[in-house]
Structure formats: structure tokens, C-alpha cells
Design a protein that fits this description.
Radius of gyration: 26 Å
Strand order of the largest sheet: 2-3-4-1-5
CATH architecture of the largest domain: 3-Layer(aba) Sandwich
Mean pLDDT: 91
CATH topology of the largest domain: Rossmann fold
CATH class of the largest domain: Alpha Beta
Order of helices and strands: HHEHHEHEHEHEHHHHHHHHH
Helix content: 55-70%
């Protein structure tokens, strides 16, 4: 994490940034923190920011300098006073906690505070959690624990009570798109996956999944077919849609992506400044918006929502899509 990353933390998690900086400024450093929030909210980045701040040789306005040897070693993962614990397989095991405690109490380390970061803390098995709990109850010297979790309720209440809880807000859609573009996704794909999930890791995984990319193309082809002729759309349902969207979860995702397409068309027609799901289709959607009155678009979107309800009632999916196509073409609800 460099100065740019620190600025990103301040922008994305302003309350967290202020609280950590204020704790340092007022010399009120807790011995244990519990960072909780969904995946992709920057918990590890914040933990490393705080570690650097606590160990920095020349902090500037309650921000790590990023240039001193201590900051550089934390950034490279080579600082002897910073230890990161991650699950060994499915769990964090007792042996890992025992080794950590030995390391934190061992003499001969560099002077100054020792910091340990426990990633996915909810995955500590019972023995590991109890071992950590004993250490939290009897902290020795300048030691700071930072536990990270995306499942706060899965943390033992006795551990919760001994930590200062700092909650992370889920990223805004704009923040998520920016982060995905920095990972070298196209603006178009970043915009689409950001409508499907607010989790950065899952969004990136979806965008890299060939099946999801194919799903996106198939949904847009159905919009094109519906614009041309109902019979073409019906043939497309049998030849392309049904074979691709085999699983119920995928089928529902396809309906969501279809709904987002027509929502984009409404936004274009109304000249709204909302962020589109398909920014690469704006010219095509503009042409459609000229031809389609608002009431037709509204009924088409309602038909998709009704189809989602019928999907959960286990209606035959081929029949469901045939009815949806017919009723979208006619501007009627699915019945």
C-alpha cells in the first residue's frame, strides 16, 4: 500500500480511515481490533495501513510516510514485527495460534510494537479461537491484534467483546467499477458485473468467466432478436438461451441481465444520468428508446419480473421463456 492506496482507503472507507488516524493521533491504540465487512471492502489494506502507521519512523499528519525502511518492509511483507495469519486449508488451526503467541512474546525482535493480522478470523477452529482468546485476555507488552472477518456473527462472542469493532461499508458501484478497471477489465464488463455483485473478488471472477461473458452476449442477442421479430426471438430461445442457462441460478441471472438491459433503455429515453449496465450498447439502446414508448418498456420490464416469480414456482423454463418472449413482444404481462 502506497500513498495512492492510502488516499483510496480514505475515499472508500472514510469513517475507518478517520478512526484509525485519530487513534494514532491521540495515542489511544487498542490491543485488539475486529475489522468486519463483506469481501472486497479493503479490510486487509486498512490493516496494513494501520500497521505501517504504528511502525512508521516519520509519520506525517497521522499517515505513514511510505518511504522509511519500516514502511517499505511492511509493504513488502518483510517486517519482523508484523505477522499475518491465514487459514491453513479450511481452518485456522491451534498450532498456528500457538506459534503466533510464541512469536509475539519472544524476545530479540526489533523494538517497538508487534502487530499480528488474522485474515478470515471466522475460520479459526474452536481450539485456535480459545488459544487466541487467552492471549487477548492477558496481552503482553506493545502488541496489537487485527482480526479480519466477513462473517462477524461467526466470531466467538468472548472474542468480539475483547476487540474494538470497526465495520467496513460495502463499496459503492462507482468504487467497484473503478477497482475493476484498475484490474484491467473493460469499462463495459466492469459496469455489468458491478450490477450482479458488490464483492470485488466475485466480480473479477465473474468477468473472467467465459460462461458469464457468453451469458452477457446471449442476453444482448435476445434484445436484438426481440427488436426484429417474435419468431426469431422464439427460435433464439431454443437454440441459444435454454442450452446456456441450464441451472436455476444461472437462469435467474440471465433474467436479471435482461431486465438491466431494458432499464438502460428507459434511462437513455429519459436522459437520466444513471450509470448503465451496458455502456457499450448505448447507441443501440438509444435507437430502441426512440421506437419504444414508456408504457411498452414498463410492461416489458414487468413481464421479466413476473417471469422471475414463475421461475421460483418451478414452472417449466422453456415454456416460461416462450411466454415471456410472446408477452414482451405484445406488451402484456406473463399469465
Amino acid at each position: 500500500m502506497n500513498n495512492e492506496d492510502s488516499a483510496q482507503l480514505e475515499k472508500n472507507q472514510q469513517a475507518v480511515y478517520k478512526r484509525l488516524s485519530s487513534s494514532f493521533k491521540n495515542n489511544r491504540i487498542g490491543h485488539a481490533y475486529l475489522f468486519d465487512g463483506s469481501r472486497g471492502t479493503g479490510k486487509m489494506a486498512a490493516a496494513l495501513f494501520f500497521a505501517k502507521l504504528l511502525l512508521c519512523e516519520k509519520p506525517n499528519n497521522n499517515v505513514p510516510c511510505e518511504t522509511c525502511p519500516s514502511c517499505r518492509r511492511v509493504r513488502s511483507g518483510n517486517h519482523p514485527n508484523v505477522t499475518i495469519i491465514e487459514p491453513d486449508g479450511q481452518d485456522i488451526k491451534r498450532g498456528q495460534m500457538s506459534d503466533l503467541i510464541f512469536k509475539m512474546t519472544k524476545k530479540g525482535y526489533e523494538s517497538g510494537r508487534k502487530i499480528y493480522i488474522v485474515s478470515s478470523a471466522e475460520r479459526m477452529n474452536v481450539s485456535a479461537a480459545n488459544t487466541l482468546l487467552k492471549f487477548l485476555e492477558e496481552p503482553e507488552g506493545e502488541v496489537t491484534a487485527i482480526l479480519l472477518t466477513d462473517a462477524y456473527q461467526a466470531i466467538l462472542p468472548t472474542i468480539q467483546s475483547r476487540c474494538q469493532r470497526i465495520s467496513f461499508l460495502p463499496p459503492s458501484r462507482e468504487m467497484l467499477i473503478d477497482a475493476l478497471v484498475k484490474k484491467e477489465l473493460t469499462d463495459a464488463m466492469a459496469a455489468t458485473v458491478s450490477m450482479v455483485t458488490a464483492d470485488l473478488d466475485e466480480a473479477y471472477r465473474l468477468a473472467s468467466d467465459e460462461q458469464f461473458v457468453h451469458m452477457r452476449k446471449t442476453v444482448l442477442k435476445l434484445v436484438e432478436a426481440l427488436d426484429r421479430h417474435v419468431h426469431e426471438a422464439l427460435l433464439f430461445i431454443h437454440s441459444d438461451w435454454i442450452p446456456l442457462f441450464k441451472e436455476k441460478e444461472d437462469f435467474e441471472r440471465g433474467l436479471d441481465l435482461l431486465l438491466y438491459a431494458y432499464r438502460d433503455i428507459v434511462s437513455v429515453k429519459a436522459a437520466l444520468q444513471s450509470m448503465p449496465t451496458y455502456p457499450d450498447q448505448q447507441q443501440f439502446f438509444n435507437n430502441l428508446s426512440i421506437k419504444m414508448p414508456y408504457n411498452q418498456l414498463s410492461l416489458m420490464m414487468e413481464a421479466i419480473l413476473q417471469a422471475k416469480k414463475y421461475l421460483h414456482s418451478n414452472m417449466n423454463r422453456t415454456l416460461l421463456m416462450e411466454q415471456l418472449v410472446l408477452n414482451m413482444q405484445e406488451g402484456l404481462r406473463v399469465v
